[in-house]
Every structure is written in C-alpha cells, then in structure tokens.
Amino acid sequence: MSARIAASALAVTATLAVPTPSFAATGAEAGAATSTSTAVCSTGSAVGRPCVWHERDDDGITGLARLTPTDARPVLAKVELRTQRAWGSPWVTVASVTSIRTGGGTSVLATPKVATDDLGIVCVTTSPVFAPAEKVTTCTNPG
C-alpha cells in the first residue's frame, strides 16, 4: 500500500514539475502586464503602455498593438502574430510588422491578416531606439 502511495505522490510531483507554456516575457523583456478584456497592456515601461490584442473573423486572424509613447524619444515596436498547430509544438511567427514611432499621440500597428484556425497569440516588443536594453514584450493569451 505504501508503495502505491509513494508512486502516486511521485506521479503528482512529476506532473506539477512539467513546465507549462509561458506567454509572458522573461529576463530583460520582463514587464508587468494587465489584462483588459481581450487586450493585454503593459502597466508601464520606458516606452509607455503598449497594448496588444488579436481580432479573428471568418477570413483569419490579425495582430494589433496600440502604442502610447510617454516622451519624445523614438520607439521601436515589433508586433508578431504567432500560431501553434498542436499543443506543445513550437509557436511560429506567421506575420509581423516593425515600425519606429515618436511621441505625439497614440498609434495602432496591425499585422497582415493570416487565414488560419490554429491557436494564436500576438506579442508586441517595444524599446527606445537608442536604449534597446529597455525592451518590454507583452503577449496575449492563446485564442
């Protein structure tokens, strides 16, 4: 009986130890993020509050990001639409757009629409052009 309990405990421990996919940034890309309905917004960074979301319809999926620079420094922004064919398979970037924006209001970047039924996430990576170490990546949840 104690062998069964030990085996069950080992199985539970092994299951909990399996890493789950992480859609948040790590390391130098880490930044706190908040979720507002379908959009995910950074709570604040050197480049402002970038927000990212996706829009899906019968024709496919589009990745979008709203940028609101906090100062006049130019900001490099890259929006990526990533898909996953099956759970556990790698996320593959299928569309992206890169732009440099400056202060002076909010702008929205959109990836080209991709016709797919695969699971998708959208990530926006922003950094001041002259301070790439201050980059922040914010990603949506799979959908």
Key attributes of the depicted protein:
1 helix, five-stranded antiparallel β-sheet, 143 residues, single chain, four-stranded antiparallel β-sheet, 9 strands, mainly beta, elongated
Characterise this structure.
The chain has 1 helix and 9 strands. With 143 residues, it is mostly beta strands. It starts with a helix and ends with a strand. 11% of the residues lie in helices and 43% in strands. A hairpin with a 2-residue loop joins β1 and β2 (39-42). It comes from Kitasatospora terrestris.
Describe the structure in brief.
This protein is mainly β. The protein has one helix at residues 2-17, and strands spanning 33-36, 39-42, 51-57, 60-67, 75-84, 92-101, 107-110, 119-128, 136-139.
Nearest-integer average pLDDT? 74
Query: Which regions contain 5 or more consecutive residues with pLDDT less than 50?
Result: 1-37
User: What is the succession of H and E elements?
Assistant: HEEEEEEEEE
Determine the fraction of residues in helical runs and give it as a percent range: 10-25%
Number of helices: 1
Shape: elongated
Category from helices, strands and their pairing: mainly beta
Radius of gyration using CA atoms only = 19 Å
